[in-house]
Amino acid sequence: MDVSRVAVDRINKTGKKFYYSEAIPNYSHETNLDKIVCINLKRIIKKAI
Question: Of 10, 16, 1, nearest to 38 (Cα)?
């Protein structure tokens, strides 16, 4: 599986999904919770590699 394309459920209750690779460079318009999820996901992926 391509780690850069891990899909994650948004916490902001929209029910939409976003890709980690898209979320990190574009999260200025996201909620703070989404930012936290992105940062935590980045850490998890680094540990997994």
Answer: 10
